[in-house]
Amino acid sequence: MRIARFGKDRVGVVLDDGVHDVTPLLKALPAHRHPFPRHDALIANLRKLGLARAAAKSRPLRVAKFLSPVANPGKIMAAPVNYTKHLEEVLKDKGIHHGNLISEIHKAGIFLKASSSVVGPGEGVRLVHTDRRNDHEVELAVVIGKRGRNIAAADALGHVAGYCIGLDMTIRGPEERSFRKSPDSYTVLGPWLVTADEIPDPGALDLRILVNGTVRQEANTRDLILGVPQLIAWASSFYSLHPGDVLLTGTPQGVGPVKPGDVMEATIARIGTMRVEVGAA
Ligand code: MN
């Protein structure tokens, strides 16, 4: 199943003929008052809502503006250098590494991005500090579906709600990664969530990104240094994972700058394609 958020906080199921609005079903979600739980309520209750059945009964819409499929991610975890060829290009280019000590993921660990950085493709990226280099990084994004801690790699895929395309937008420079990657709109998730049952092997997906029609990054998730199960196991050995938490798995070689006016088009096999306009904040 493909689940999208669109327009003004609508939720839909994406079928071949378009998006089927199932927003009324969300009334069945538990009503929370302060303090709110750390998970995303829709992702935590995805299986209980009967979205597919309702979608089949409704008429398709043409949607212009897709939002992030996860409205309230508790945290955005991200793998820093998780493709060998990307590590090589980072070490070669001072415009990327800025004298920072760059090592592969085994030494660098996982970092966090502000959840306020999340947008959907229809909202676009709004660059800050446009005098500096701002790069695209296309990544497979994993959405956690089940709470867990110290999850074994062998059990990890059972904790996944689904997958979407992620853009880990980045200002290059000397500061900490999480600071440079956390401005508003610097995490794009979309165009929808594809539930895990449709992607039995997240380690065999072609991914790519075009900027203004030119291919910049093209790779396959089989080249990930740490695959999805290993990343979940490692992350959960440091912190609890909650439904709606997002894990960006790392970007392959070919990162490069974007500027206001550019259009990015990112594709991951079995998920889809999303078009994202770049503007200035
Ligand atoms: Mn990244």
Q: What would your notes on this structure say?
A:
The chain has 2 domains: 2-66, no CATH class; 68-280, Fumarylacetoacetate hydrolase, domain 2. The protein has 7 helices and 20 strands. The model has no long low-confidence stretch (mean pLDDT 96). The chain is globular, with a radius of gyration of 18 Å. The chain has helices spanning 41-44, 51-57, 84-92, 94-97, 105-108, 177-180, 228-236, and strands at 2-6, 10-15, 18-21, 60-61, 66-67, 76-78, 111-113, 118-119, 125-127, 134-136, 138-144, 160-168, 170-171, 187-195, 206-211, 214-220, 246-248, 256-257, 263-268, 272-280. The strands form 3 sheets. Strands 1, 2, 3, 4, 5, 6, 7, 8, 11, 12, 14 and 17 form a 12-stranded mixed beta sheet that branches. Strands 9-20-19-15-16 form a 5-stranded mixed beta sheet, with no helix packed on it. Strands 13-10-18 form a 3-stranded antiparallel beta sheet, with no helix packed on it. The protein is 15% helix and 33% strand. The structure holds manganese (II) ion (MN). Manganese (II) ion (MN) binds next to loops.
Share of helical residues: 10-25%
Share of residues in strands: 25-35%
Query: How many distinct folded domains?
Result: 2
CATH second-level architecture of the largest domain = Alpha-Beta Complex
Bound molecules: manganese (II) ion
The main pleated sheet reads as: 12 strands, mixed
Total of DSSP H or I helical runs spanning 4+ residues = 7
